[in-house]
Amino acid sequence: MARYRETEKGQGFFLTVKLSEQIIPGTFEHTLQRLFDTQLELRIFDRKYINDLTGAAAIEPRIILKIILYCYSKGVISSRKIAKMCEENMVAKALAEDTEPHYTTISNFVSGMSREIEKLFSEVLLVCGSMGLIGGKMFAIDGCRLPSNASKEWSGTKKELQEKYEKIQKVVKQLLEKHRQNDRLGKETKEDEQKRLERLEKDAEKILEFLGTHEERRGAGGDIIKSNITDNESGKIKGPHGMIQGYNGIAVSDSKNQVIVAANAYGSVSEGQFFPEMLEATERNMRRVQGKKKPLQGAVMLGDTAYFSEDNLQAAKKKKIEAIIPDEQYRNRDDKLKAGERREGKERLDVRYFKYVKRGNYYVCPNGKKLTYRGKTKLNRNEGHKYQSNSGDCKGCTYADRCIYSNNKQRKQRTLYVPISKYKENLAQKMREKIDKAKYRKIYSRRMQIVEPVFADITYCKGITRFTLRGQKKVKVQWQLYCVVHNIGKCNMAEKRKRKVA
């Protein structure tokens, strides 16, 4: 027969707890406490507090920041849950120095400290630089798409929202008619119908107010895109698990230890348009870290095809950065190039091998076939001219394997795109030629190992999978705090390695 231990549910314990002993050396929270208590300059936060003569004493920004960043590192991003952690979690209680801030204090702090959090981001970067974690020779840029505190069901163009409003009004009318015809409905049924009616009327009023106060939203190319009634600065973005209503958190990561050197969030799927702005932020932060006037001169910037454009390449060249950003068709060219052709030095037959005839505005291919002008078109978010061969002209051509990419294989046609450039030098075409070389493809292959683990750490390891705020300015603050958590984690790893060596 089984025999079990006797237990006592009502037994009381008197435990001595010293808060300073809850922060164990080698942990993330130990590094966090050391940085905020002894190393970081946080006086910029003091200007938000004007309670020296009147008002209650405030909790120090140093303490609130430690609580928020620790909870973020555990995947807790709700203000209410962070406040609860300060009551129940001993590590959070130790970092809070036995204070218990209200959730509104935490929420207002995060959403109201835009300039101050930018300063904090650069202060943590300075610490990373002093620990030798930043190389400054190679960077990679990419975006992490996360849902925001907004519903995609409230998205649409003005026309779509107007149709939704009319549909709701139709349902309201039907409900009112139903009420008039069914006076003998039960009390509970009447209450449910009334609640539904009130909700629909409220939704209709919300749509009508939005339509009267907001202009049609337009994307990077000037086309009309969907607005959102809940958060109109967020965007309907294709995420890893389908369409989301959210923001694109863009980060620039250093190659040495994957430290994030610049971060911002935008409510747009088209992240390439923000490349010059991110370059400026990277240069500004690296100037402070390295103390050089032109810290990015001679550096390499890697970006995926979303960042490929003449404007972006020109912006990088202006700062004397070597940008390696492939065009959207580079993989198709790679599939069609044979290993033997590479060894023999054979190149793809791009626009350089086609003879332009100005008088008739057409091109002649190396096989002597004519490519007729078909008008202007959009090419990789840039404007360009389109020239196309006649149906069947390319069938059996000896240059077919090396010719320009065909988007119409059945008709055996070839289409030549000639981009329109406002610059003297066509860097887009040079990049197409450069990325086909083995040397630059090998360099570009490092992009994923530099920037993708950054997003894996924030989303998978830390458990941060969404934004809780609304509006681009507030979301930017939260994204920078997520990135600060990642960078402090790098500092913690460096301290662990140093301790092992010692």
CATH homologous superfamily annotation of the largest domain: Ribonuclease H-like superfamily/Ribonuclease H
Q: How many strand elements?
A: 13
Mean pLDDT: 86
CATH architecture of the largest domain: 2-Layer Sandwich
CATH topology of the largest domain: Nucleotidyltransferase, domain 5
Radius of gyration, in Å, reads 29 Å
SSE ordering: HHHHHHEEHHEEEEHEHEHHEEEEEHHHH
Structural class: alpha+beta
Poorly predicted tracts of residues: 336-345
In DSSP terms (H or I, runs of 4 or more residues), the helix count works out at 16
User: What is the approximate shape?
Assistant: globular
Number of domains: 4
Quote the beta fraction: 5-15%
Distance between the termini: 56 Å
Helical residues, percent: 40-55%
* CATH class group of the largest domain: Alpha Beta
